[in-house]
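so the lab meeting is tmrw and i was supposed to have these ready like two days ago... anyway. pasting both below. for each one the top line is the aa sequence and the line under it is the structure tokens. i havent really looked at them closely yet so no promises
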Amino acid sequence: MYDKEDPRSWDCCSDKEASCVTTLVQVARVAKEKAIKLAPRFDLSSEMSEDEEILFDDIYEVHEIIGKGPFSVVRRCVHRHTNQEFAVKIVDVAKFTSSPGLSLDDLKREATICHMLKHPHIVELLETYSSEGMLYMVFEYMSGSDLCFEIVKRATAGFVYSEAVASHYIRQILQVR
């Protein structure tokens, strides 16, 4: 009978391999427990049992809205222990998935891509939480507005975007750390 905790029950392992895999599983479990205890944003883990879920509201205090979309709202939030500011994109999963052509896989893909983006001119997705039909995506906080808004605001004020200005912005976006 298959038991995910016991490598001897896996078809791919002989008894000899199973003892090695068991050791690796134990090492991985200990490493995970130590990482949870050492993670700066999860100081509460030592007070919680392994079965308890860490909720976004336990870690962050939500503040004003700084952006809106058809399925989400972006709010400024503050970490309860460090007082550091972040931006959280709160996605209504039911609303998102009920839209034609959008699925939970699309939402997961967005979170994966955002998490992979590491660039000095793009805000970084730091962590995600999920509860009660909502997905909380915690990003670095950047005051001000996004590039699109700034371009429209300046163009409305009469600023002419030359090729030199456009190439400056593109160079910054394409710059690698």
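ok protien two:
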Amino acid sequence: MTPLCELAIKHSCNRGGHHTRGGEPCHDYTPKYFKLFELSAPFVQRVLEIGVNSGAGLRMWAEFFPNAFIHGVDINPGCLFHEKRITTTQGNQGDAGSLIQALPVQAPVWDFIVDDGAHDWPSQKTAMLTLLPYMTGDGVYATEDLTEVESTILAAVPPAYAGHVYDIPNGAGGGSARLLIVRRKQYDGY
């Protein structure tokens, strides 16, 4: 179990840690994320997450990335909140204009962008194509809970980027979830 898995448990986040939340098994994304950021976590400055829900994921990221500004975007105004280094705004990931309006900084400053929002491919694809230009040169873009076939997903990744789809086992209870990781080709280490 990685330190990020332990933070997922601490913050009741469904991303990992071999536990259940509300009786549902959690996905086991945290080992993959830990491997991606194990050495660079102190240097990450800005994290953007689509899908706020209870805020557990944002709080987990805030603790894992100790020097980062964390921003969440959600279509539901009822889940928006602000804490120390965490801000949230309303936005629709399926609408490029709405998504751009929800960004507090509209420049390529995001070191890590994670989509845990609508979980439908048309919205996930819109978010990815809209937000990749706002990612730093060596940034990481992740889309969780994919339902589309791998060939369709990878065909949507722009030519300057490399994408990889992973089947991630659920940490407690079997089954699996799919995760897309996208980076600029010159930084692709997978």
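from a quick look at the 2nd one: Residues 40-187 form a domain with the Rossmann fold fold (CATH 3.40.50.150). The first strand starts at residue 20 and ends at 21. will dig more after coffe
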